[in-house]
Amino acid sequence: MTVDKEWQKIKVNKIPPQQLKDLLEKEDVYILDVRPLDFRINTSFIKGSLHCPLVYLADRYREIPKDRQIVVTDYAMKQSPVVAKFLLQKGYSVVGALKGGVERWDSENLPLEHRVPTQKVGSLSGMKKK
Fold it and tell me: What is the C-alpha separation between 105 and 53, in angstroms, rounded?
């Protein structure tokens, strides 16, 4: 990633949790969770999200479908804006970053699924909603 004047001009929308919940009910949104492999604070995920730690993103971003809207999240919105900018520069349709991350999503009692993060990163292509 190159941080230059063009990078600095990229604006990333911050999507409040309730707005994302509403969007997920209406649209086929791809949720990309970029927390590291060894995170331990809260190992819950937004249902249907795909996990790709930031450290692997430069090598794996091409696996993310370009035909879907993307929202990026992490635990507390520390890494997700950087990832959103990166994907926007690569031509992806990024709606924004989840404001407050999974931490805020959880604090607003929105639905989570409990998964154990694995040391193996799976496919990022994801599945379409049924």
Answer: 19
Give the domain CATH number at 16.
3.40.250.10
pTM above 0.90, yes or no: no
Give residue-wise pLDDT tens across range 27-38: 999 999 999 888
Grouping H, G, I as helix, E, B as strand and the rest as coil, residue 122 is: coil
Give the number of domains in the chain: 1
Tell me the pairing of strands 44-46 and 112-114: antiparallel
DSSP designation for 67? T
Instruction: Give the Cα separation of 4 and 13 in Å (integer).
Output: 19
> 121: closest CA among 47, 41, 37, 49?
37
